[in-house]
Amino acid sequence: MKALDYPSLIRAFEGVIASVLEQKDHLSRLDSVGGDGDHGTTMARAMGKVADALAAHGEEKIAVLLQEIGWAILGVDGGAIGPLLGMMFLSMAESAEGLEVLEGEQLAAVFEAGLSGLLAQTKARKGDKTLVDALVPAVEALAAAARAEEDLEAIFSAAAEAATAGAEFTKTLQARFGRARHIGEESIGSADPGASSIAFIFNGFKKGISDHA
Ligand SMILES: [Mg+2]
Asked: How far is the CA of 129 from the centre of ligand 1 (A)?
């Protein structure tokens, strides 16, 4: 399958919910290294909001669903993650406006719009040990595979692999953002919780897409 339609987007987000909830305790443990240990709880709350949006089944349009998910996550308190991911999905919604399916160039452009929307909300860039370190390579890999007109499974596999590698790479970095920056060099050796969440989100997209391919 090459095109992401509304039903496959629903399945992709079902994959995200399962993947993130499975890692809830792991994400909180990562956050307890340099933060307040609530990242898993915050992400679980965000996934509850995503589940509500999926169950609402509004207009059955890609842009409407992304917008509902974006607004829902935007309001989740517990650090910067809610506003950042919320803005990412809202920016994707804007880019997907009016499209019945996403494939090739459109799929690439929608995820790139999401990345730009998120980057506009933070000064964090690659190398700062944040979610940006996983998201940038994930979107680059997704966009390259989508433009090469690969199958959805291959596209989301490439993105998941790049996000996982990006999250893994944050183990080598020293935190320069968020609470974890206060522990300086002690942050080296463990993965950034936000980057790890991005990896679990993209692995969830992949699983949701490939389970039903
Ligand atoms: Mg926290």
From this structure: 14
Q: How far away, in angstroms, is 181 Cα from ligand 1 center? A: 13
Tell me if residue 210 falls in helix, strand or coil. helix
- Single-letter amino acid, residue 50: V
- 124-164, pLDDT tens digit by residue? 999 999 999 999 999 999 999 999 999 999 999 999 999 99
* Separation of CA 163 and ligand 1 centre (Å): 21
Dist. CA 134 → ligand 1 center (Å): 18
Measure the CA–CA gap between 209 and 192, rounded to whole angstroms. Answer: 26
Picking from 66, 145, 157, the residue whose alpha carbon sits closest to that of residue 108 is 145
What contacts 117, CB < 8 A, 6 or more positions away?
87, 88, 90, 91, 92, 94
Cβ pair 124, 150 in contact under 8 A: no
- Could you please state the CATH topology (level 3) that the domain comprising 6-210 is classified under: 1.25.40
Domain ranges of the chain: 6-210
Calculate how far, in angstroms, residue 126's C-alpha sits from the geometric centre of ligand 1.
20
